[in-house]
């Protein structure tokens, strides 16, 4: 499959701080790729170098083979960038904002008018197109912000936290718009702190921290890292601590107790549930067992740590 976006050895320092550390990234054409990382992980710096607003100290970023810094006109013309903050004019209407950004990219006349109308339909704001942007809700402004990033018909769309601070209905509308774009062949690089969004929208996910990709794969592949063999929740009656100790004595099995429940996990290989139940026999009464699917958030916390940092 053709590569749409790639980074090789991308590095950026701010004084003594190594913000991005030899980062390697490859996104295929038509793929939705989620970039997850805590505050200060290097996400924003990476995006800044990809879109050409930050110069790397070393390394290369390419869009469809065009070097972002050596061939800026070709590379930047292929990228649509939607920043975290709404970068539009409140004293212009939604339509006027899109026309303005279209003209910056050289669109004129009928082509510009048709493109603006099509994008207003894509983001579901055709009925509000001729109202001032300042009268829009936060969610509506973010939807127009996405349309502005698409007005020049890019092949790669970079969405940096596109749903921050919006209501659930607007978030759902934004996610549906992104899914339609990907279904139509758009390549998307998507950053978010909402794990359920990334799981819903993205084909593959990369977890970044300290300026490096720590793990990469489909959401299912990443979630499988926590318990490649299986994971089961067991509800018990009796001495939960004694039950925890009995299961902890089994080789290759991990257990966490919480109130009347035990969370059991094991590595690759044979199903260990039968061994666990035998260990619990005579110690507690097993009320219920249920296979439990790991979450992307658990993977994220395991890879990046649980402590808050800025």
TrEMBL record:
Organism superkingdom: Bacteria
Keyword terms, alphabetized: ATP-binding, Nucleotide-binding
UniProt-listed InterPro entries: AAA+_ATPase, ABC_transporter-like_ATP-bd, ABC_transporter-like_CS, P-loop_NTPase
UniProt KW Transport keyword: no
Keyword Ubl conjugation set for record: no
Pfam families in the cross-refs: ABC_tran
Domain ABC transporter: 5-235
A GO molecular-function descriptor: ATP binding
UniProt protein name: ABC transporter ATP-binding protein
Organism: Nonomuraea cypriaca
């Amino acid at each position: 499959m053709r590569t749409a976006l790639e980074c090789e050895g991308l590095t950026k320092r701010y004084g003594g701080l190594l913000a991005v550390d030899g980062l390697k990234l490859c996104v295929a054409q038509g793929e939705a790729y989620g970039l997850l990382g805590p505050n200060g992980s290097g996400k924003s710096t990476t995006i800044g170098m990809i879109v050409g607003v930050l110069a790397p100290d070393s390394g290369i970023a390419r869009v469809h083979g065009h070097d972002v810094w050596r061939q800026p006109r070709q590379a930047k013309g292929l990228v649509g960038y939607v920043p975290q903050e709404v970068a539009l004019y409140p004293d212009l209407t939604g339509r006027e904002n899109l026309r303005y950004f279209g003209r910056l990219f050289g669109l004129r006349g009928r082509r510009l008018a048709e493109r603006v109308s099509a994008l207003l339909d894509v983001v579901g704001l055709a009925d509000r197109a001729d109202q001032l942007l300042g009268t829009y809700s936060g969610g509506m402004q973010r939807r127009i912000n996405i349309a502005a990033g698409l007005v020049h018909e890019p092949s790669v769309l970079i969405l940096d936290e596109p749903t921050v601070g919006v209501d659930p209905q607007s978030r759902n509308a934004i996610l549906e718009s992104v899914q339609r774009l990907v279904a139509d062949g758009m390549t998307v690089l998507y950053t978010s702190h909402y794990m359920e969004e990334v799981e819903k929208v993205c084909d593959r996910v990369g977890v970044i921290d300290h300026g490096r990709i720590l793990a990469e794969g489909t959401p299912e592949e990443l979630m499988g890292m926590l318990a490649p063999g299986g994971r089961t929740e067991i509800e018990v009656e009796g001495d939960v601590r004694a039950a925890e100790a009995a299961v902890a004595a089994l080789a290759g099995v991990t257990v966490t107790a919480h109130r009347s429940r035990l969370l059991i996990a094991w590595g690759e290989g044979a199903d260990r549930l039968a061994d666990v139940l035998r260990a619990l026999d005579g110690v507690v009464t097993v009320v219920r067992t249920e296979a439990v699917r790991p979450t992307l958030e658990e993977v994220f916390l395991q890879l990046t740590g649980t402590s808050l940092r800025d």
